[in-house]
């Protein structure tokens, strides 16, 4: 119950913009990149509310009205993710890290470890191949362009798909693939405009994009190493 069993439930995740900036800095500065995974992370969070639960199935204790008083958070509790993030944040802060105000998932220290300068190539090759396998197009004939020239899709041509969820799932996978595939951003942007009522024409053009991915599964972004790191911005204005 809100206000009794739990209070705050929000737990931040790292922003994609933050990840891209860090990878760009690592490529430019020659930093060493490492990652880790915490097993059963939510079980490490400290539970501050008084929460009780029924005995696990198969456990027979003395007495028929016994319950468990939780001392730690469990998977399934609404505040479990927040408890874990609070525990993890405190550990980093106690270790001398500072927390970013722009992205609460970013912690940093005023210390750098430079390595030999190397470029960093970002690719989602396995993910692209998994999309092709999921769509039964792993053996498709490659195309050279992600979409037809001057293609204009609408909500009228073609028949409504019998299973629109398949189209939505495919476009969702493609959206995630654009993290490193800037060459398909425009096409995916167009396809994502028809998620509510996708038609056969939209599915055909999505399949064409998959044929393009078949020929370029490992294409990605090269973050070249350079001591001259400059922040640049661009803008786009549509012609009226």
From TrEMBL:
Q: Which InterPro entries match?
A: DNA/RNA_pol_sf, RVT_2
Q: Which residues form the Reverse transcriptase Ty1/copia-type domain?
A: 3-121
The organism sits in which domain of life?
Eukaryota
Cited Pfam families: RVT_2 (PF07727)
Q: What PANTHER family would the database entry show? A: CYSTEINE-RICH RLK (RECEPTOR-LIKE PROTEIN KINASE) 8 (PTHR11439:SF470), GAG-POL-RELATED RETROTRANSPOSON (PTHR11439)
The protein here is known as: Reverse transcriptase Ty1/copia-type domain-containing protein
Q: Tell me the organism's taxonomic lineage.
A: Eukaryota, Viridiplantae, Streptophyta, Embryophyta, Tracheophyta
């Amino acid at each position: 119950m809100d206000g009794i069993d739990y209070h705050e439930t929000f737990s931040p995740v790292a922003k994609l913009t933050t990840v891209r900036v860090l990878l760009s800095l690592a490529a430019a500065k020659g930093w060493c990149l490492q990652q880790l995974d915490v097993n059963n992370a939510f079980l490490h969070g400290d539970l501050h509310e008084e929460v009780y639960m029924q005995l696990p199935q198969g456990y027979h204790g003395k007495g028929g009205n016994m319950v468990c008083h939780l001392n730690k958070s469990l998977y399934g509790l609404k505040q479990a993710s927040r408890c874990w993030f609070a525990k993890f944040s405190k550990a980093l802060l106690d270790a001398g890290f500072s927390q970013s105000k722009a992205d609460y998932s970013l912690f940093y220290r005023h210390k750098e470890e430079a390595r030999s300068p190397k470029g960093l190539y970002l690719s989602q090759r396995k993910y692209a191949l998994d999309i092709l396998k999921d769509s039964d197009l792993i053996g498709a004939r490659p195309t050279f362009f992600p979409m037809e020239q001057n293609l204009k899709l609408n909500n009228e041509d073609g028949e409504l798909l019998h299973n629109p969820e398949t189209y939505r799932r495919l476009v969702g996978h493609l959206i995630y693939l654009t993290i490193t595939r800037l060459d398909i951003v425009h096409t995916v942007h167009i396809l994502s405009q028809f998620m509510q009522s996708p038609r056969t024409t939209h599915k055909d053009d999505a399949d064409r994009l998959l044929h393009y991915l078949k020929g370029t599964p490992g294409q990605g972004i090269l973050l070249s190493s350079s001591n001259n790191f400059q922040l640049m911005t661009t803008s786009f204005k549509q012609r009226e």
